Automatic annotation (TrEMBL):
Keyword Secreted: no
Top-rank taxon, per record: Eukaryota
Protein name as annotated: 3'(2'),5'-bisphosphate nucleotidase
Gene source species: Linum tenue
Chain residues that bind Mg(2+): 167, 234, 237, 408
Gene Ontology BP annotations: phosphatidylinositol phosphate biosynthetic process; sulfate assimilation
Lineage of the organism: Eukaryota, Viridiplantae, Streptophyta, Embryophyta, Tracheophyta
Length: 478
């Protein structure tokens, strides 16, 4: 069981921030800079010091690459001074600094792994695609990413501080008949970990064996009740998009006492031109090949991330093969679109009508005045689309009885919110991540919008049409 951070709190020194104005300026101009001489170590008594606990305790167990001086204990002490300010919003805006950086680096690494596996899947055979019990395809990438992220988080933040809920379990992978598959996963994990220094991590001293890989995967339980602070991981969200060579995402978030405090979304196939989102990915793969990527290329793929309360969402290009991730890796800020005229707005939704009712959203779009064709995109890339300002609305209305899992939304929600957007259920309430595996008390569907006005219109339209539609009665997705 993960160690409860509160118990560490009493042992940890507590720090207070001095010089808020300077910090605000620094943070605006150099948002990724971690060291700030304006911070002083002072006793303080707010409960947000729990973030410090994990920062501090992780230092001793850190296996980050030696070149990552920012993770040394002295700079971590400085980081510890960042988060204590007035109230929750300011506090979260300044804390989880180390967790965020580790998470972004881990997701970059996972994206690199996924790209290689997807390339193989598309160019070779389908034998790396297995059927899960619910028949959704699960691949070597799902298990490998889960193993990698689990291993990295535990090694860098300290195993006792890390609790993870993630999608994949090891049952099918541990079966004797899956020996070949397990071997492939172990190989994939080890060849990815061999590149750990490129991402700022130290590789394991020896390649992981099958048991260690299974252990890393199964450490991420989706059945055990999570601790008060835990990571939610969808190793490959939009598996269908992934196996089809289309959009998918690696989604990692940190949830603390029911609040999503960090969100990181790796979108390896996000195209440089938003119009290409609506084509099958094969099309822009061909085009990308014609224009070879430059250094720090934005041609395709990105990692988007945000920290709750910061009012900022950031995007990095994917690290090019064989290149080193130099933090903050040409990150730039993303903002939601300023378009509030429905006629000019684009809404996106799942590709699969089994996952969201296309007919219901078409009716909503009509009544709200959204005139453009829906942008149908696999996975949480839809949240990235809103955060980047490439679309204005995302709607999902799953069939009655479907329980939305937290890892399918957590990262995207905080990113859209910090990029200036709004995300609620169809009743206008914030999504509730406080209940473990599933979103709690979700009212009908999920709506994310670039602006409050557009959002309000859609919610009104749902209210007006819900009862008169067949959706209120039974099956929603049709
Ligand atoms: N019947 C259903 N209704 C709604 N969502 C579903 C669903 N079955 C699966 N999903 C979720 O929808 C996700 C894919 O989202 P999208 O349809 O937007 O591409 C899946 O993630 P995975 O692919 O990670 O399993 C899965 O969690
Ligand atoms: Mg998913």
């Amino acid at each position: 069981m993960p160690l409860n951070c509160w118990s560490l709190a009493s042992r940890a020194p507590r720090f207070q921030f001095l010089g808020q104005t300077t910090d605000t300026l620094r943070h605006r101009r150099y948002p990724h800079t971690q060291f700030n001489p304006c911070y002083r170590f002072m006793p303080k008594t707010t409960h947000h010091h729990q973030s410090y606990c994990s920062l501090h305790s992780s230092v001793s167990t850190s296996k980050l690459g030696q070149d990552q001086g920012r993770f040394s204990s002295s700079t971590t002490m400085e980081n510890g001074g960042h988060y204590l300010r007035n109230g929750f919003q300011a506090a979260t805006g300044e804390s989880y600094t180390k967790e965020l950086e580790v998470a972004v680096r881990a997701v970059q690494m996972a994206c690199s792994l996924c790209q290689k596996v997807q390339q193989k899947l598309i160019s070779k055979s389908q034998d790396q695609v297995q059927a899960k019990e619910d028949n959704s395809p699960v691949t070597v990438a799902d298990w490998s990413v889960q193993a990698i992220v689990s291993w990295i988080l535990c090694e860098t933040l300290g195993r006792s501080n890390v609790s993870i809920i993630a999608e994949e379990d090891v049952q099918s992978l541990s079966k004797t008949r899956a020996a070949g598959l397990l071997e492939t996963v172990v190989q994939t994990v080890n060849s990815c970990l061999a590149e750990a220094p490129l991402f700022g991590f130290q590789p394991p001293e020896a390649p992981l064996d099958a048991l260690q890989v299974l252990e890393a995967i199964s450490r991420c339980s989706s059945t055990m009740p999570p601790s008060s602070k835990f990571w939610a991981l969808d190793p490959v969200d939009g598996t269908l998009g992934f196996v089809r060579g289309d959009q998918y995402a690696v989604a990692l978030s940190l949830i603390d006492h029911g609040e999503v405090v960090l969100g990181v979304l790796g979108c390896p196939n996000y195209p440089m031109r938003k119009e290409w989102l609506s084509y099958h990915h094969r099309y822009h793969r061909i085009v990308s090949r014609l224009t070879p990527p430059a250094e720090d290329s934005w041609d395709k793929g990105c990692v988007i991330y945000a920290r709750k309360g910061s009012g900022e969402a950031w995007m990095q290009p994917l690290v090019q093969e064989g290149k080193k991730l130099v933090w903050p890796n040409s990150a730039r800020r993303v903002r939601v679109s300023a378009v509030d005229n429905p006629e000019m707005a684009t809404f996106c939704e799942p590709v699969e009508k089994a996952n969201s009712s296309h007919s219901f959203t078409a009716g909503l779009a009509h009544s709200v005045g959204l005139r453009k064709q829906p942008l149908r995109v696999y996975s949480m890339v839809k949240y990235a689309t809103i955060a980047r300002g490439d679309a204005e609305v995302f709607m999902k209305f799953a069939r009655t009885g479907y329980k939305e899992k937290i890892w399918d939304h957590a990262a995207g929600v905080v990113i859209v919110q910090e990029a200036g957007g709004v995300v609620t259920d169809a009743g206008g309430r914030p999504l509730d991540f406080s209940g473990g595996l599933y979103l709690q008390g979700l009212d009908r569907g999920i709506i994310a919008s670039a602006g409050a006005e557009l959002h309000e219109r859609i919610i009104k339209a749902v209210d007006a049409s819900w009862n008169s539609s067949s959706l209120g009665e039974g099956e929603k997705a049709s």
